[in-house]
Amino acid sequence: MVRQILFQSREPRGSQSMKRAIIILAKSVVLAGGMALVATTAGADGHASGENEIKYRKAVMRALGGHMGSIAGIAKGEVGHTGHMLGHATAINAIASMTANIFPKGSGGDNTRAMDEIWQDTAKFYSAVKAFQDAAANLLQAANSVDKGAVGAALGGVGKSCGGCHKPFRKPN
Questions:
Q1: CB atoms near residue 70 (< 10 Å)
Q2: Does a structural domain hold residue 157?
Q3: What pTM value is reported for the model?
Q4: Residue 162: inside a domain
Q5: How many domains does the chain have?
Q6: CA-to-CA distance for 134 and 127, rounded, in angstroms?
Q7: Is there a domain that residue 1 lies in?
Q8: Each residue of 35-77: pLDDT tens digit?
Q9: What is the longest distance spanned by two Cα atoms in the chain?
Q10: In a domain, 43, yes or no
């Protein structure tokens, strides 16, 4: 069945875009499942070693950046994959839901841009994470409308929420 979905080409063009969006969404779900598996097979405290946590967090943030850049290109009209907006927004929303858990104690240090303030002012950090999660939920809602203008505006909110965490809690390059 998957083969039929992936390789069938007799359907109208809009249907192909939807298939691509579903494939992107499926890949995002598999990625999220893999990330969850890593989290459940971690050490007794629920987390892997500090270095492994840092590697994992960096991979999650790279995935987030990829989805952000892709949906921004669609919203700006740089690429025409409007049918992919929902897949990217879904992935961004899923990553936002993981964010609070990818900064466990012991995952700071020299090999990360995460600042100690994350663990020193957890209330402020979790407030910033909540703002990101809310903005990602708004983006998902906008993507459901397939309105590039609404997606662009919601994407701006996500970007602003990213800065709300990066400015106080991330070391400069």
A1: 20
A2: yes
A3: 0.73
A4: yes
A5: 1
A6: 11
A7: no
A8: 554 444 344 445 567 899 999 999 999 999 999 999 999 999 9
A9: 58
A10: yes
